[in-house]
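Input sequence (278 aa), recorded before submission:
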Amino acid sequence: MNRTVRGAKVLITGAAGGMGRSYAERAVAEGAAAAILLDRDAGALARTVDELGVISRGRTRLHSYVVDLGELGAIAKTAHRIRRELGDPDVLINNAGIVRGNRYFWHTDNGDDTRPTMYINALAPMYLTREFLPGMIANARPARIVNIASAAGTVGNPRMAVYAASKAALIGWSDSLRLELEQAGHEHVRVTTVTPSYIATGMFAGARGPLLAPVLDPDVVVDRVWRAMLAGTPLVELPASVRLSRALRGLLPTRVFDRVVGDGFGIYRSMERFTGRR
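Predicted structure, token format:
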């Protein structure tokens, strides 16, 4: 892919606010042919489209679709409509996610916590990608898939057990998909997996950044992810201590890791004061 997404169709989930909106702004700024924005919040999505329209001045076609990614059947219906109206995207950014935190697993609810977290964070990216991937392969144009996971998917963390599980599932699937595409000779479609620590978007308000992993500036993350996406970089770990933690997790005995890294770095206490939005 070139140095920008100029002329490409870019689909972003969770696009009405936060990081999703920032990715949409980047697509518009670079002259994407179309920005396809998905979110479940109809009002916020409409406002985002209006505001991006002022920035775009008609250079980028803006298309919005209200869909709850926790309803897996709705994904297929929305994808069918997008294909019919616009064709397959060239760039798919699976950004939408939710977190339920500050409670131990046995205090959570399967219907309100476990099911939606696993559906939106893990299954929705798989379902949505499966809808568009055959077309992305057949188009033979450079294409990109970005899966926004989390450092929580690389190491267990108290008070966010299901969230960590959902992101671990996303990481395993995302990297396996990357390898499958390479093995099958479809290297024009590249997958980037992103595993950031806490980001200052409000989603993790109250969470404390562990030692060596301060809460990240959203603009910095967007820029790093965007450049990695264009380059087809397989993995983005932010900050660098995420890579260190992952390496130590593989090298140290579990109990030693728990004491030295989990407790010592403050990872295992980072969610105690979580108050962020769902």
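Checked by second reader. The two ends are 34 Å apart (CA to CA).
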